[in-house]
Here is the input.
Amino acid sequence: MHALLTYYLSVFLDSYTDEPTSSSFFFGFMGCAAALVFACFGAAYGTAKSGVGVSAMGVMRPELVMRSIIPIVMAGVIGIYGLIIAVIVSAASKLHQQFR
Here is the structure.
């Protein structure tokens, strides 16, 4: 049993390399694109829904319009957050590629 385990571990460890495959870079950059796209879609949707709310607030209670602008700002922050995450992941992928 011990010899069999040693054999399988040696085969597994010999086939392991530190070099990433080309598909790892593809999925890394697709993750960057997904982070940016979904964050911007979420920000656009949040801005649209908040804009409808601000319009309704301006008709019903005009004195509270400035208070209802906060969700629009928060929706914009979500888009910026997605951009930051995409840049960080992209920089990490390029950094690993630089040391090849």
Notes: Residues 22-60 form the longest helix (39 residues). The mean pLDDT is 81. The chain is about 80% helix and 0% strand. Helices lie at 2-15, 22-60, 70-98.
